[in-house]
């Protein structure tokens, strides 16, 4: 499954204003209904300079994209299709292992599909 990312600033701003949010130890996950009828979830990633250098931020993005690609193999189980998801990273994410990130995302997306 192909990972489709959000790139326009306006999509992130709208999501911040009207999305449903869930807080985890390492993320804030925003969920907003998509205006496209593609039946595929879209994802956005926000990692600020406060978290670290460009090298650190890119490493985190690669990890998150890899985890999301794995979860997309079972998209009906983890995601509401016709929705956009934005992951906003917190400072603590730098210290977390890949497996812990994967487990945290799997639990949050699986448990309630972020209603």
Output the number of helix runs: 4
Here the CATH topology equals: Ribosomal Protein S5, domain 2
User: What structural class do the secondary elements suggest?
Assistant: alpha/beta
Principal-axes shape call: globular
| Structural domain count | 1
Order of adjacent strands in the largest pleated sheet: 1-4-5-3-2
Order of helices and strands: EHEEEHHEH
Could you give the distance between the termini? 23 Å
Q: Approximately how much helix is present in the residues?
A: 40-55%
Q: Which CATH architecture? A: 2-Layer Sandwich
Topology of this protein?
Blueprint: E1 4-5, H1 9-18, E2 20-23, E3 27-33, E4 42-46, H2 54-72, H3 75-78, E5 83-89, H4 98-112
Parallel strand pairs: 1-4, 4-5
Antiparallel strand pairs: 2-3, 3-5
Helix pairs in contact: 2-4
Structure description:
20% of the residues are buried. The chain has four helices and five strands, in the order βαβββααβα. The chain has a five-stranded mixed sheet, covered by helices on one side. Helix 2 crosses helix 4. By secondary structure, it is α/β, with parallel strands linked by helices. It has one domain: Ribosomal Protein S5, domain 2 (2-Layer Sandwich). The model has no long low-confidence stretch (mean pLDDT 89).
């Amino acid at each position: 499954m192909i990972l489709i990312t959000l790139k326009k600033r306006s999509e992130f701003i709208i999501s911040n204003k009207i999305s449903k949010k869930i807080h985890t130890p390492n993320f804030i996950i925003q969920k907003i209904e998509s205006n496209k009828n593609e039946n595929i979830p879209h994802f956005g990633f926000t990692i600020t300079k406060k978290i670290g250098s460009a090298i650190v931020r890119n490493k985190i993005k690669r990890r998150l994209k890899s985890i999301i690609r794995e979860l997309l193999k079972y998209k009906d189980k983890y995601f509401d299709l016709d929705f956009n998801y934005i992951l906003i990273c917190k400072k603590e994410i730098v210290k977390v292992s890949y497996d812990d990130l994967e487990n945290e995302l799997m639990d949050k997306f699986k448990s309630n599909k972020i209603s």
